[in-house]
Amino acid sequence: MYYGSIEAGGTKMICAIGDENGNILDRFTTPTKTPGETVPLMLSYFMNKAKEGMKISSLGIACFGPIDLNKSSDTYGYITTTPKTAWMNYDIVGEFRDTLEVPVGFDTDVNGSLLGEVTWGSSKGLTDVVYLTIGTGVGGGIMSGGNLVHGMMHPETGHILIRPVASDPYPGRCPFHNNCLEGMASGPAIGERWGKPAAELMDKQEVWELESDYIAQALMSYILILSPQRIILGGGVMHQEQMFDLVRAKVKEKLNGYIQTSELDNMEDYIVPASLNDDQGIMGGIKLAMDALES
Amino acid sequence: MYYGSIEAGGTKMICAIGDENGNILDRFTTPTKTPGETVPLMLSYFMNKAKEGMKISSLGIACFGPIDLNKSSDTYGYITTTPKTAWMNYDIVGEFRDTLEVPVGFDTDVNGSLLGEVTWGSSKGLTDVVYLTIGTGVGGGIMSGGNLVHGMMHPETGHILIRPVASDPYPGRCPFHNNCLEGMASGPAIGERWGKPAAELMDKQEVWELESDYIAQALMSYILILSPQRIILGGGVMHQEQMFDLVRAKVKEKLNGYIQTSELDNMEDYIVPASLNDDQGIMGGIKLAMDALES
């Protein structure tokens, strides 16, 4: 059995074919232009692979947002109010379902990454997990009680309010909330605050002290609200390895002993990097495809 | 069929007997002293009712916390690190299960209230709901995807960090986090900040403007993290009716159009008071009992 997977991102589209163990058997990557330019290339990929004998039984799409996940909505399966205007109100699920004639599973990119990690990564078997990515933007996927959280739409965890540190004059860059988490802690915010790209600031301890404070504030809220068994941090900013210990220490300091669990006693195992070599999203898409076929 | 319900609170214990429609057929209230003093009275209530023909088939306990909800834990069913020291490490589930010889359902008081509201209240049928109570303390119950959220323990939503308003010099009163939501917005915090009890401050507009700002900040985080279909606000502070419109307006202002859903377009129906005349907790206990019997 072959499953199709798409990790639909703002800069590139990854298409892949995988098996029921999450193995990626083949993949194709193309830049995200307009639907008219990009989608035909993606469809051709799956159709050509079918001719070669790798016909997919179903497809999973882990997609940048915001998206409509409400199955009773008229616009279920659409990318909705994205600032990428060419993709606004685009029926991505319908396009692939109707052309490839397979069941299509659909979720946010971050829920997809989380699903990959709990299905085939080091968080396998956990039921309550937060996956936060800190890069160009900040976004989070959430699983609660074994279900990916959707609610009225889907989480937008990157935009929660954090407390600006008194010594930080940076006003934030979120067009909606100025100094929310994404406004203060995204890669571009780091670059703007310090006057050069994050990658060139690796040896500046004060950069990462401040950054880890903002991330720890957000993690404190996630912990108090969701009580997750684990938090996975991904994205470009978290490729700065020193960040993990800084964030762990600050989360502990901020919680200040209020919550006592065996999970929090073992911070190394509580706040962890992604474990699937940046394939967590596309592997999550395989699982979305498997679940779509079953339902 | 009769179901037993206990709403175990820090100041009083409410015991009740109900039916499968959530009707409360009988109730008994006693002050919360020590387990040795209080629990025998509660047990006697249920045993006497059994003799009168109202023998319960199962029991639900909606309990002040923190509590252990992990069924694979050795201390499942215990009240754990509560500041009410007489109840610390008390096996409340075991005591009632072993003496009354019935299945016992168990959850937090706030999850119990939420369960009452979604089972028999105006939020019937919703699957993603936050129930926040703002009174002596601040606490929240959460349902996500139809399941009450437990995770590694249970939510402690009252302790998230909010941003102190610049004009508010009050330092907060939470012993763990000083100026977290509970530290800044509980009833006692209002009293301490303004020098008299909240009930005597009803006509002071600035009191409720500030209070609603802190609550709205917290609601913004819950909305961005959980994407709930509705938020129910209960507790003494929310008996100030003018609070609802203030909170609704401030939530809208803070989200600033970032999330667009039909739910948020209808704020009157999105941020609502509890609907069960303060019986939501004890009615939730009935549902916990029904679920315990089924499983």
Q: Can you describe what's shown?
A:
- The structure is a homodimer of 295-residue chains.
- A 5-stranded mixed β-sheet of chain A has the order 3-2-1-4-7. A 5-stranded mixed β-sheet of chain A has the order 10-9-8-11-12, sandwiched between helices. A two-stranded antiparallel sheet of chain A has the order 5-6.
- In chain A, a hairpin with a 3-residue loop joins strand 8 and strand 9 (138-144).
- Chain A is globular, with a radius of gyration of 19 Å.
- The model of chain A has no long low-confidence stretch (mean pLDDT 97).
- In chain A, helix 6 crosses helix 7 (242-255).
- Chain A contains 9 helices and 12 strands.
- With 295 residues, the first copy, chain A, is of the alpha/beta class.
- Chain A has helices at 35-51, 92-100, 109-120, 181-185, 187-194, 205-226, 242-255, 262-265, 280-294, and strands spanning 2-8, 12-18, 24-31, 56-63, 78-79, 90-91, 104-108, 129-134, 138-144, 147-148, 230-234, 271-273.
- At the A-B interface, strand 9 and helix 6 of A face strand 9 and helix 6 of B.
